[in-house]
Amino acid sequence: MAFKTDIQIAREASKRPIQEIGAKLGIASEHLLPYGHDKAKVSQDFINSVQDRPDGKLILVTAINPTPAGEGKTTTTVGLGDGLNAIGKNAAICIREASLGPNFGMKGGAAGGGYAQVVPMEEMNLHFTGDFHAITSAHNLLSAMIDNHIYWGNELEIDERRVSWRRVLDMNDRALRDTVTSLGGVSNGFPRQTGFDITVASEVMAILCLSNDLEDLQRRLGDMIVAYRRDRSAIYARDIKADGAMTVLLRDAMQPNLVQTLENNPAFVHGGPFANIAHGCNSVIATKTALKLADYVVTEAGFGADLGAEKFMNIKCRKAGLAPSAVVVVATVRAMKMNGGVAKADLGAENVDAVQKGCPNLGRHIENVKSFGVPVVVAINHFVTDTDAEVQAVKDYVASMGSEAILCQHWAKGSDGTKELATRVAEIADADMANFAPLYSDDMSLFEKIETVAKRIYRADEVLADAKIRNQLKEWEDAGYGNLPVCMAKTQYSFTTDPNRRGAPTGHSVPVREVRLSAGAGFVVVICGEIMTMPGLPRTPAAENIRINEEGLVEGLF
Fold it and tell me: 260 and 385 share a domain?
């Protein structure tokens, strides 16, 4: 049986004009700033006008550690949102925008899949409404202004060896990880060693996703530390006088994007920090706006629950005053088999024993999410090769953990495949069973916060950090940053820092390689193991198969 590709399904979608989608949420057409016929930004004036309304219920979708078998977290987020609407609920979806890096690399896009997609899929996975370009431009404007300030006499007495602000690019390009700038003589400035991160790792991205409005955005941009003097005192973006111009570049990008699912339900797609190197959640302004307009808001946090959900709870919810009513953990039979030791090539054959051996990975995520005081439901994202016995094995295991697992077939059936999940999630959300609390308090030391996440979420025995890192954390505490949460940058493939250790390992250590203060965003980035803030392309990049065909249509995006 030949299945249609995601892009074929998306192309056949019966889209409605974006004004009709806005009307479902009570957004009048004059408050929509259209980008073509099928996408629009929601005006800040409208957002301001709904702030006195009560909030709907917030539902987080997260997952087990990703495997090459694929879990379908975004697909499930979209499927659940469609399912809630199909059973008569007023629901909206909030997801992140796609980065060009993984689109042309190996991970693919971020619009869901099968019959549970957000459209227009092609535009969303390419330039969309230009938000990422605006973030890249604002970030690099600051870089240019820092080097320009040094060139024209360095009135602020910046120590050129201690410029911490790197440049960004929305592409996987390992050649730019470590660079030297300003070669070529006096007129080009003073040579220094620096590097690039991918745009989704930019502090500007994090700030856009955590700001409430333009005034908050500019204040946070001004708070960013970009360099230090010889006496180690900090230089801020506002000292460079860059915060105003950066805000101007980000004015339109700050407004949430409204699009639709294949079933013409509203979806906000805004912001895009990766969860393995940043905080991994869509924007606060999109989530808060959706909560004012819908009774149920389904959002996702990137990668597995050890990364995305942990940061959603400890960073986004803490900063924005949000509290989830329920959490859905996505798992697949195929991934359970991989965690149980089955090779990718052998996943098609029934192997109940391997499913059972792999379930502890799922079990640990369930325990971890419950530790935040939020009820958990498991969504088994169905694949055609799954057997009844394998599905039952997952259900039995989840039941033994005190939760329930529900089989979902949204990839093949759209909302018809998620009505059972939607009904149960709505019941749990309406019952107000959640008693949400972050994992650690603001007043714990920064190193204690790192240890808390490492020991309680990753189940590590210890955190390995040399004196230089511990002293740096202490200096930041002395400077008044000790109350910030920590944003762990770690491989998504394992609870450990070794991407090849599947399952639910214990008895491991978490080595901390570097720490970075994001004073504007309001967290400390903790870089663990070998994780890179500028990824590279794989041996065979997806870009090799992306082209425009004879009909003028894009092929190869997924």
Answer: yes
